[in-house]
UniProtKB/TrEMBL annotation:
Source organism: Scolopendra viridis (Giant centipede)
Lineage, opening ranks: Eukaryota, Metazoa, Ecdysozoa, Arthropoda, Myriapoda
Disulfide bond found in the keyword field: yes
Main location group: endoplasmic reticulum
Protein name: Translocon-associated protein subunit delta
One of the record's GO cellular component terms: endoplasmic reticulum membrane
Assembly notes: Heterotetramer of TRAP-alpha, TRAP-beta, TRAP-delta and TRAP-gamma.
Entry superkingdom: Eukaryota
Subcellular location: Endoplasmic reticulum membrane
Alphabetical keyword list: Disulfide bond, Endoplasmic reticulum, Isopeptide bond, Membrane, Signal, Transmembrane, Transmembrane helix, Ubl conjugation
The family this protein is said to belong to: Belongs to the TRAP-delta family.
First and last residue of the signal peptide: 1-22
InterPro entries membership: TRAP-delta
Membrane topology: Single-pass type I membrane protein
Role according to the record: TRAP proteins are part of a complex whose function is to bind calcium to the ER membrane and thereby regulate the retention of ER resident proteins.
Amino acid sequence: MANYVHVVLLSYFVILGNFALGDTCQNPQVSSESYTTTDATVVVNIAFIAQFTVKCSNNVKNLNLYADVNGKIIPVTKSLEENKYQVSWTEDPKKVSSGEHQVKIYDEEGFALLRKAQRNGEDTSNLKPSFTIGVNHHGTYTGPWVQSEFMAAATALVVWYLAYSAKSKI
């Protein structure tokens, strides 16, 4: 009887271990699209949105992914469509530069290694992400160099000066 209990417990832990490990994506094929806010005249922060599709050679689906954006970890959202994901974040317009922003995407195993390295104060640059996507930001329009109120006041002063000068010559 004792041997039977040991066999059942061992089988239980082996099966549980297989579920806990999960599958990792082998040779991911990634296609992505991105959007960024370009008008900063009425918004407080610039929004970055990246949608991407992941196809694995071993047909793994519904991965739990995490994004590393400039050292900040962001969970990746799964879409209702199969193998589609989205990551989004915001940044201060004064700190955002135009150009390509690289987003490192980690699976659960890579994310665990990343968090462990961060907790221990180790260098994370040598950790390899599952894949990287690029988000292109074309720049941010912050408004005209001269405000319209200033132009209206300056025009009013010029018109007043011309009218006053014309009146004094009469």
